[in-house]
Amino acid sequence: MNGLKLFLTCVVINIYFRRVTASHGTGQCGSTKLFGDNGIHDFDDITSNSNYAYMMNDEDLIIDCCGVIHRWDVTVEGVPAGTTPIYFQVWRPTAAGGNSYELVGQNVETVTSDGSKTFNIATANRITVKNKDRFGWYVNGDDIVTYKAGGREFDANHMQAMASAPTVGNTVSWGGTIANDRSYAIRVVVDPNTDPVFTNTQWSISVGNAVAIGTSLVKLTVNDDDSNDVSTLVVTMVANTKYSFDTSTYILTTAGSLGADGGTSTELSFRVADQCGNTGSATFTVTITNDPPVIHSLPNVISVSEDETLETLLHTLNVTDTYGAPTCSLAASVPAEWPFFMQKVPGTSDYGIYSESSPGFNYVVKKSYDIPVECTDGFLSDTETLSVKLIQNTPPVILNLQNSTSVSTTDPIGTTAFYVIATDSTNDDITFSMTCSPVVCPFKIFNSGEIQITEDLSGHTVVGYDLQITVADSRNTVGPRLLTITIADLNDPVQLTNIPSSVVIKENSAVGALVYTVSFSDIDTSQKHTFAMTSSPVQGLSYFSIDPSTGQVTTSGVINYEALTATSFILGVTVTDPVTSDAANLTVTVSNINEAPSFAQSSYSLSASEGLVGTVIGTPPFGLADPDAGDSVTLTLDCGSQTAYFYMHSTSGQISYQSSYDLDSGSLPSAVTCNLS
Q: Residues 470, 557: one domain?
């Protein structure tokens, strides 16, 4: 429920006009001062002029003070039948000087008969005269104003023919005829001007301290009983930097900020003056209000989840003040440990109430907070409350577990195996996690609840996996719940059946000789199976190879035991089907066989003389070679029927006579062929 706010502002701008006693200006005319001849009743001369204007310019007739004409006296003669107007006039020298004069006032009166006439001028029609003004008249038709020649004559009386009476504001050059030595039967009676006055009926005005610069406060009104003075009145104000006064419109406006002036008073002095220097004055007393700021958006109640962890804008203040922008803050009574603060909302001039990052809300410990907020303009303040209600967290719910499903070995990586559906009534962010049995499994769960395949299943041999799945929000964990995923159309693995094993092969076995036939088993008999082989050391691949189709290991090069750097080779055999493979080792050992020594040549020859027993015949250059390093070689000599005559040393091969050999006996040949071994 919104509360009623009542603001009592006891300070207003009141403008009081206090009249001050008027003062007369210097040069003011005395009461009933007369200009002209006193004996005008006896004047009886008349000119023959027609349509003439006259201006009295004798120094004794020139107006020498400031006042108003309240009476005209005139003696007329020769007044025609009917009504004849006389234009009584006041002329004022212009800035041009010389004979240039402006008609500043004119009273029109009528006569119907001859004689002395007195015309009292109503207040509203009185002409204001000033020092150096001249009076005169104009008659449309024959002259009727009398004069007297001689006696107390006045000089420099201007007369000038005019077709019609001039109007007020006309400027005339009085350079025409001048009449001297005559007194005209006309005079004026001048009284002092009345003082101007302020006439406002509104004597007070109220504004707040937030009033805009240039705001009109009041229009002054002034008046003067002397109607000629009204248009000349000058109103001024004693200068004040906070206010401006337009002397042409009489409007008072604010000229500076009043924001800091709440509760203060200022007196403004005004003065009005007429053209004779008479003045009136008034004092305005200005008192300024200061309105407090107003928080419009509070009190208010908002709800926040106890799970909230981010810095959060809870409420944006709507606050106004009649002057400027108020400053807002959490009230001093807010406990320091409460997780709230106030700052301006970024990018705006508005204040916001925030909860801190990781505020540690706990519904069980504290269900709500009433946060007082204060806004001040430096003078007055407004305080309202934001109530924060915590929403208790509820645990998430898993809707579709426990459950089971299956996938195919042909399903690619990224395929969805299952969607776990969970809800949270408080709309908390929820996260999923899982464990597998077996521990290593080809599945992953995302926070959306989606379970995806993460590996190529075509090579898998495990029939199925049990996934234990949990779901959690920031406060509660639910589960685990079981999901069983089986892998359909699983490939049966190929298996080697007769290795690991070891075999021995003799050196010098023929190239292509069968060493071993590797065998395997696979329930999927229709699949193609391929063999491959490695060797350690790698030189074994120079001597052995495997048929990729049959698995037969054969020799692929000449094997010389004596030339080998290693005599045992570990052959790594792998058999693969389109999905699986199996590998094992076949150890091949090369056995050494005894090899016959050899002669460097197929025949040798020696020449010797016949000789006695023991005579050395020589040693042939046999160049014996034996692949079996370390074997001892024994030489034998077979010379057939002459073998008994010759002896060969079994190791050095030196041949000598073991029986005397004499060719002269006639029975021994001169050339003998022997076989060596």
A: no
What whole-number distance in Å separates Cα of residue 173 and Cα of residue 166?
12
Distance CA 486, CA 6 (A): 75
Residue identified by tokens 């809870």 is 314
Is the pLDDT at 223 greater than 80? The verdict is yes
Residue 434 has pLDDT above 50, yes or no: yes
Residues 655-672: pLDDT tens digits?
Answer: 888 888 888 777 888 888
70 and 165 in a single domain? The answer is yes
pLDDT tens sequence across 261-273: 777 888 899 999 9
- Domain holding 74: CATH number? 2.60.120
Which DSSP string corresponds to 178-242? Answer: EE-SEEESEEEEEEPPPPPEE--S------BTTPPTT-EEEE--EE-SSHHHHTT-EEEE--BTT
**Which residues are CB-contacts of 124 (< 8 A; sequence separation ≥ 6)?**
225, 227
Structural domains counted in the chain: 6
Compute φ and ψ for 222, nearest 5 degrees: -135, 160
Query: If you write DSSP's letter for every residue of 597-613 in order, what string do you get?
Result: -B-SSS--------B-T
Structural domain of residue 175, as residue ranges? 33-191
Which tens digits make up the pLDDT trace of 39-73? 888 888 898 999 999 999 988 899 999 999 999 99
Show the tokens assigned to 310: 């981010």
